[in-house]
Design a protein that fits this description.
Length: about 375
């Protein structure tokens, strides 16, 4: 089959591969009558905690809530400041604002994750926590983040929404901070057929508070211990997540294979991400960098190759962040990346032929311009 297009993502492919098994489960859950929380959800929580190497996992409605509930359970509130990197999905920032606390932005380093050298400058007497983001499935520099946090008495809540299965010197993300938020959004490496998320922690007290907070603050059916939220996972989504967890390592390895192919074909033409010593990245996104990003993106679009930018507007320059008083120039590295980053298609169901089509598409852009210039 001749390849003449490559979608940025195609979620239908994964569903089709698991369709029979999933449909059997849908029927079983439908007949069971247990649709929210319950056994299926508890089974998922137990399994995913084991997978992430933590004592507990508490599921909830989405990855944003996983972070928000963690902050609430840790009593982050007005007058507190929380340090976050400026290159992330907007949820990393709003969850802080939603607690009443103020986000303190820091730039990202060359690895596109939180710049550990900038933590000291962002620190004030009001700082209570840091949210390092394992962006694109690359672990943030957790040894440095943890030692800074320990020296200042700060809480660390990992934003692991893009990084399930990623590890640093053999330790999986989710187990470094006091808590970590994961997303089960369909686009994430472990994605369900709707919204979902979970928090990992090894702190028994925090686990108990989270279990109440996500379910109206209820201790049991009739006793409300604290004002809570309605942020629960459906049995169907928990079942899907359990089924997919069986395949996650294979899928992550397939994404790593695709990343290898991209590196082989594109190194020298554009900047490509690489695993550094001790890192096991799961490539939620494969982000290349080139000063000619927009032209390259147009060229690939003409070849029917889907691309994306994660993220074109750094958090401090978002309209919603205007009251925080930042201006262009405050975080130069992230601002430069916003102009030069391009995400190429990467998902486990992508075929080698499709990956080669993307590589040839990028190569043809640079060859053509080389010819134009000669
Ligand atoms: C997806 C994502 C979230 C939020 O997850 P949802 O399930 O969409 O609420 C938070 N942080 C990062 C970095 C993400 O990529």
């Amino acid at each position: 089959m001749v390849i003449d297009r490559v979608p940025f993502v195609d979620l239908g492919r994964q569903f089709k591969a698991l369709e029979n098994r999933l449909c059997e489960g849908f029927v079983a859950i439908g007949r069971s009558g247990q649709f929210i929380l319950g056994e299926q959800v508890e089974a998922f929580e137990e399994r995913v905690a084991r997978y992430c190497g933590t004592r507990y996992a508490v599921s909830c409605a989405n990855g944003s809530d996983a972070l928000f509930l963690s902050l609430k359970a840790l009593s982050i509130s007005a007058d507190d400041e929380v340090i976050i990197p400026v290159n992330s999905f907007i949820a990393t920032a709003w969850v802080v604002v939603a607690t009443g606390a103020t986000p303190r932005f820091v730039d990202v380093g060359y690895d596109m994750n939180i710049d550990v050298n900038a933590l000291d400058r962002a620190f004030t007497a009001k700082t209570r926590a840091i949210i390092p983001v394992h962006l694109t499935g690359r672990p943030a520099a957790m040894a440095e983040v943890m030692s800074f946090a320990q020296s200042r008495g700060l809480l660390v809540i990992e934003d692991a929404a893009q990084a399930i299965g990623a590890s640093l010197r053999g330790k999986r993300v989710g187990g470094f901070g006091v808590a970590a938020g994961f997303s089960l959004h369909p686009l994430k490496n472990l994605g369900v057929l709707g919204d979902g998320g979970f928090i990992t922690t090894s702190d028994a007290g925090l686990n108990e508070r989270l279990i109440k907070l996500r379910n109206h603050g209820l201790r049991d059916r009739n006793h409300c211990e604290l004002w809570g939220y309605n942020s629960r996972l459906d049995a169907i989504q928990a079942f899907i997540a359990c089924e997919k967890l069986n395949h996650l390592d294979d899928w992550n390895n397939r994404c790593r294979e695709i990343a290898d192919q991209y590196r082989l074909g594109l190194e020298g033409l554009v900047e490509v991400p690489k695993d550094r010593q001790g890192e096991y990245c799961v490539y939620h996104n494969f982000v290349i960098r080139t000063p000619r990003r927009d032209e390259l993106r147009d060229h690939l679009a003409l070849l029917n190759i889907g691309t994306n930018v994660h993220y074109p507007i750094p958090l401090h320059l978002q309209e919603a962040a205007a009251t925080l008083g930042h201006v262009m120039g405050d975080f130069p590295q992230a601002e430069r990346f916003a102009q030069t980053m391009l995400s190429l298609p990467i998902f486990p169901e992508l075929s080698d032929a499709e990956v080669q089509y993307v590589i040839q598409g990028v190569q043809s852009f640079f060859n053509r311009t080389a010819l134009d210039r000669s």
